[in-house]
Amino acid sequence: MTTTPQSAGHVVAAVIPAAGRGVRLGPGAPKALRGLGGVPILVHAVRAMLRARAVGLVVVVAPADDVAGVRSLLDSHGLPESKEIRVVAGGETRQESVRLGLAALPAEVDTVLVHDAARPLVPVDTVEAVAAAVRAGAPAVVPALPLADTVKEVTPGPPGSPEPVVGTPERARLRAVQTPQGFRRDVLTEAHEKIAAEGEGATDDAGMVERLGVPVVVVPGHEEAFKVTRPLDLVLAEAVLARRRASDVF
Ligand SMILES: Nc1ccn([C@@H]2O[C@H](COP(=O)(O)OP(=O)(O)OP(=O)(O)O)[C@@H](O)[C@H]2O)c(=O)n1
Ligand SMILES: C[C@](O)(CO)[C@H](O)COP(=O)(O)O
């Protein structure tokens, strides 16, 4: 096991929430366990984190009813043994799963990257860039991309019914947020303790940190770090992976 500093005095761990069902992807196994190029989505995500020199330890947050199954799945895929991989049970929400992953970190970890299992193809350069920005002093770092579409704010109505438009935010000021999101461990832990205690949900970890009043910065994301959410995303992921395998570039 190696949890020695991988990046100049910092001990960086990746927490991978992988306990979701993948309802929007359609019926089947939990999303992280479904195949992409013949390999479970989760295995791609774990490899993406292990490839980063900065990352010294990975915590996988598995569906609560299949922790042993996920452990043996990872063990059967020939992952490098130079870095420890822990597997813990997840919760009912992404927020709860991340909190359970944080609780499994060893004391010496001071920097945490939270990465969706559902973003299996994130390039290593994006992972390293997020870790480097935290190392450089930012308490919270988010990779993100400018939007291609114009966005409307609406008053939500019943599915399928016309929804009144409230406004059109200035697109140049908007970013679509990805993972891994990087944090000083103390900041992320405080966010999960306080915001969860307030009973407020959040769709990403940086959103919780923002509510503490801690500054969050954005660094460039990558179009191949997209989230596999709906069936078409899986088609795209298969195509990206096939191209990488053909050119041997990961
Ligand atoms: N209770 C949950 C819910 C989500 N996640 C994880 O959070 C990441 C991002 O969530 P999302 O893509 O929304 O996954 P699902 O919740 O599985 O998707 P859906 O909403 O379609 O069911 C995924 O890696 C997912 O496994 C988790 O660890 N625990
Ligand atoms: C964390 C995240 O991937 C950033 O875009 C996203 O917020 C997860 O959202 P979801 O509601 O779980 O799809």
UniProtKB/TrEMBL annotation:
Pathway: Isoprenoid biosynthesis; isopentenyl diphosphate biosynthesis via DXP pathway; isopentenyl diphosphate from 1-deoxy-D-xylulose 5-phosphate: step 2/6. The record marks R24, K31 as: Transition state stabilizer. GO terms for biological process: isopentenyl diphosphate biosynthetic process, methylerythritol 4-phosphate pathway. The record marks R171, K227 as: Positions MEP for the nucleophilic attack. It is an enzyme of class 2 (transferase). The keyword Transferase applies. It holds the Pfam family IspD. GO terms for molecular function: 2-C-methyl-D-erythritol 4-phosphate cytidylyltransferase activity. This is 2-C-methyl-D-erythritol 4-phosphate cytidylyltransferase. CDD domains: CDP-ME_synthetase (cd02516). The keyword Nucleotidyltransferase applies. Its EC number is 2.7.7.60. It comes from Streptantibioticus silvisoli. Gene3D superfamilies: Spore Coat Polysaccharide Biosynthesis Protein SpsA, Chain A (3.90.550.10). NCBIfam families: ispD. InterPro entries: IspD, IspD/TarI, IspD/TarI_cytidylyltransf_bact, ISPD_synthase_CS, Nucleotide-diphossugar_trans. Belongs to the IspD/TarI cytidylyltransferase family. IspD subfamily. Keywords: Isoprene biosynthesis, Nucleotidyltransferase, Transferase.
